[in-house]
Amino acid sequence: MIIYGSSISPFVRKVLVALNEKGIRYEHGPVAPQAEDADFRAASPMGKIPAIDHDGFRLADSSAILDYIEHLSPQPALIPADARGAARARWFDKFGEVELDRKLSVVFTERFLKPRLFKVPGDEALAQQALDTHLPPLFDYLESQISGPFLVGGAFGIGDIAVAAPFHNLRLAQVEVDAARWPKLAGWVALTLDRPAFVTAIAAPAW
Ligand SMILES: N[C@@H](CCC(=O)N[C@@H](CS)C(=O)NCC(=O)O)C(=O)O
Fold this sequence. Notes:
This protein is α+β, with helices and mostly antiparallel strands. It has eight helices and four strands, in the order βαβαββαααααα. InterPro entries: Glutathione-S-Trfase_C-like (IPR010987), Glutathione-S-Trfase_C_sf (IPR036282), Glutathione_S-Trfase (IPR040079), Glutathione_S-Trfase_N (IPR004045), GST_Omega/HSP26 (IPR050983), Thioredoxin-like_sf (IPR036249).
């Protein structure tokens, strides 16, 4: 299986972590979003990362790819078998993208991508507004949902992958979750990003 996309993307990271957890071998092509690479564009109609090519089966979107991987290699299960567990896991998968990453990526863009990668100044007011106003309600919600090492049921799964993945980008922006204000969230983020599957995905080439 070929995985297209820079490991700096939380969505690419989700796929790499799932493959690492399941012990599936893959080849990684760390392309940037909208790259002209013809093989990548054949797999990703909108030019977004990640995308995969598995023996000619091409697919984009991290959630769709995680579903594919789960069917391909069901063990260890990353999606609970029961209706409520599966539904909550998908809720957190969506929450990770639509709520969390959408706000968190403002901090990542203004404090990391612009100054470090694009060599232009970031908008510090935007980053601070996200940290002061937009992210705290999401962190409050996550703090209320954490009662053990995993977000859903008794096992690590796609909920943990999708919610933890963007937090590494917060670290790249030199921001840590305030452990005095959100102790459970800070502990869960540290524990999850320390899993070997995350450590390997984070170390994968960005370009
Ligand atoms: N729903 C998609 C989102 C993927 C996505 O937005 N990736 C970003 C990079 S982090 C991208 O490729 N953006 C380029 C664009 O929107 O043109 C997924 O889960 O894979």
